[in-house]
Every structure is written in C-alpha cells, then in structure tokens.
Amino acid sequence: MFIDKNDLVKCGFGPYQAYMLIKQAKAIMVQRGFAYYNSNGVGRVPKEVVEEILGTKLSIESVAGIA
User: Fold this and answer.
1) What separation in angstroms does the CA of 56 have from each of 16, 33, 42, 47?
2) What band does 47 get if pLDDT is binned at 50, 70 and 90?
3) Cβ pair 12, 23 in contact under 8 A
4) In the beta sheet, which residues pair with residue 3?
5) Is 12 exposed, middle or buried (0-12, 13-18, 19+ CB in 10 A)?
6) What secondary structure does DSSP assign to 24-58, as a single string?
7) Quick check: 60 and 6 in contact, CB under 8 A?
8) Which end of the chain has the smaller Cβ count within 10 Å, N or C?
C-alpha cells in the first residue's frame, strides 16, 4: 500500500510534518536503490517505510493503493 501527504494529514499530522515524512521516506527508498523516488513529482511512498520512520503501525482506511 502507498501513502501520500494528504493521508498523513488525515491521521492527525500537520501539513509540514506530513511533507517531511514523505521526504524522508523518499530518501530511504532512493538509498535502497529505487531511483524512481528521486523525482520531485513523486508524492506517494510505501506505507511500510513511513511506519519504519515513525516506529509504529498506521491504520489508514482511506489508502487503497496496490503494492
């Protein structure tokens, strides 16, 4: 499943916090060898990466991405 800034805002994060979480997740994905996430146009990242950053599971029903 994938997650974007708006999904994180719905979870209670502020807009800037959500933006920074997505940015950190993109950097992690690039480090793991996924150059696709190096683009500025990419705003969705795997939910699992955001959960790794936060250290907890997210329960977001509105996310309907396919991994």
Assistant:
1) 19, 24, 24, 11
2) very high
3) no
4) 45
5) exposed
6) HHHHHHHHTT-GGGGSTT---EEHHHHHHHHTS--
7) no
8) C
Give the tokens for residue 67.
């991994």
DSSP lists the bridge partners of residue 46 as: 2
| Torsion from C-alpha of 31, 1, 8, 63, nearest 10 degrees | 160
Average pLDDT over residues 28-51: 94
Amino acid at 9: V
For residue 6, which amino acid is it?
N
Place of tokens 């480090």: 31
Residue found under tokens 């994060």: 13
